[in-house]
Amino acid sequence: MPNVLFAALPPRWLQYEPPLRAALDAAGIKAHVATDIPPEEVDYIIYAPNSGLTDFTPYTRAKAVLNLWAGVEDVVTNATLTQPLARMVDHGLTQGMVEWVTGHVLRHHLGMDSHIQGQDGLWRTEVPPLAADRPITVLGLGALGTACAQALAGLGFPVTGWSRSAKDFSGITCLNGDAGLDLALETAQILVLLLPLTGATDNLLNAERLERLPRGAFVVNPGRGPLIDDEALLAALDSGQVAHATLDVFRIEPLPVEHPYWAHPNVTVTPHIASETRARTASEVIVENIRRGEAGEPFVHLVDRANGY
Ligand code: NAP
């Protein structure tokens, strides 16, 4: 019977214990799941980077670390972690991100703010363009970026996606590499960032790249805060190069009250709620990896430690 350590903050245990036990039962796996197992007896670690566990050295027999979140930037460089690291790919998380991105894209596309804020007796008759006339670029064509790109393409937007490796998704113009990024930015009336944070993506959206966007573009960032050079974005907002930025993630979270994003009239701050790992569906993903580990099958959603995601 495998021993499964749940290493996350106590409220998460309350949230995850019932669906984890249900998913183990459904898979016919008998396991001991607890928050306090001696390290040398642990077979799997279900892990949140803010759990306080930072030294994996004593976990000598652990077969895998199963991250609760999609982003792994806080654990991927941990030199004590020698076991396979799986990240979270959860269809509940993906669906949540599709809904958040689609909602914020449609807000900007339709110019909803002018009607929501402008209850002032003015009969504003400007009709928004159809989706077909609003090119959108999604940076990152992974689990989340692809699902968002496909949902937006399904609404009729011309969608360009950009990734590290070459892709081929029907209905999406897929680009990669530096030249591909330039092209992807040049057409992006709405730019959605769904890249992981790595050495290669830190500050990716800098002043030069913001200049490549069509004037008056909208930036929507549910990826990670450091993907954007904050000072460059603020300058682009002030100059009108960027019309509005909707930001869910920041270099420091919670975003400090004195940060200029809070006060900027053309910035919308959401508090890292674009999408969360959903306990029920995530438990099924975790249990599938435990099943695989016990059956000697390869784990799914493994992180490439060299690439950092
Ligand atoms: P993923 O499946 O690993 O996909 C990452 C994508 O980014 C892939 O298409 C990858 O290219 C591309 N990429 C990585 N490095 C690149 C580079 N240097 N140049 C170009 N493309 C690069 O990740 P995911 O599950 O879609 O999640 C994406 C990110 O969303 C997470 O890392 C996390 O930071 C963020 N997130 C935020 C929230 C929230 O609530 N705000 C929730 C969940 C996740 P390849 O396809 O070629 O590998």
Characterize the structure shown.
With 309 residues, the protein is α/β, with parallel strands linked by helices. The chain has two domains: 3-90 and 277-295, NAD(P)-binding Rossmann-like Domain (Rossmann fold, 3-Layer(aba) Sandwich); 91-269, 3-Layer(aba) Sandwich (Rossmann fold), CATH 3.40.50. The protein contains nine helices and twelve strands. It has helices spanning 10-26, 91-110, 112-117, 143-154, 177-186, 207-212, 230-239, 260-263, 279-295, and strands at 3-7, 32-34, 44-47, 64-67, 85-86, 136-139, 159-163, 172-176, 190-193, 217-221, 242-247, 267-269. The strands form two sheets. It has a seven-stranded parallel β-sheet with strand order 8-7-6-9-10-11-12, with helices on both faces. A five-stranded parallel β-sheet has the order 2-1-3-4-5, with helices on one face. α1 links the parallel β1 (3-7) and β2 (32-34). α1 (10-26) crosses α9 and α2 (91-110) packs across α4 (143-154). The longest helix is centred in the N-terminal third of the chain and has 20 residues, at 91-110. The chain starts with a strand and ends in a 14-residue tail after the last helix. Bound molecules: NADP nicotinamide-adenine-dinucleotide phosphate. The site of NADP nicotinamide-adenine-dinucleotide phosphate has 29 residues, from α4.
